Description:
Elements: E1 2-7, H1 12-15, H2 18-27, E2 30-35, H3 43-52, E3 56-60, H4 74-81, E4 86-95, H5 104-120, E5 124-129, H6 132-141, E6 149-151, H7 158-166, E7 170-173, H8 183-191, E8 197-199, H9 221-232, H10 236-250
Parallel strand pairs: 1-2, 2-3, 3-4, 4-5, 5-6, 6-7, 7-8
Amino acid sequence: MFVDSHCHIDFPDLAAREDEVLANMAANRVGTALCISVTLEAFPRVLGLAERHAQLWASVGVHPDNDGCEEPDVARLLALADHPKVVAIGETGLDYYWQKDEPEWQRERFRTHIRAARHCGKPLIIHTRSAAEDTLRLMRDEGAGEAGGVMHCFTESWEVAEAALELGFHISFSGIVTFRNAKALKEVACRVPLERLLIETDAPYLAPVPHRGKINEPAWVVHVAEEIARLRDEPLEHIARATTDNFFRLFRHVTRPA
């Protein structure tokens, strides 16, 4: 079995094909997927998916790119996370790619998510782009290691991965690792300890080769696993088993299929 540790089935491109997306998952042995919240306004759609389907689970959080939406506080995140199908806090973190002024509101929002995760004991899903130094600094300052979690859609250097691993975090690879020009990332994928490795799609974005340029979906997480198996010269079944076991160990509130 494979697990997609990060996807957005509530987004329009996939929500319109909900039944087909789930059927494709089953056909490709993707037995579980974690649906990620990016705003509080959209959280009911994410939770609704998880409530309707036993194989889907939800997170709650506000993406660092989203300005002008409802701003979370710790109490609000804790209230929403107090649901049996909400198993993580996030997606949260820092993204300075578009916000060139490196705004303090992003950092304060990130702090809020870390504090909520520590309080409720659910792991963090962390996004970082053009902000690795600040991301790691705030993780250390706020004690993110107490909650644990995953650096999702990882695209940073080995040094950043190593720092996150030292804090107890997992490293998750998306379809980017299948891209021909992702040589440095492929090297990182070879070095991450197997027991800290996760796979994801970030669907509907970042479709892996051989589907690059198309609308991504959870079923295609298999291709991420295939590339990592090739890079590490390990059997696909070994990568599938390890990443699946890692997922259920990290997201311990998820019920593992029989």
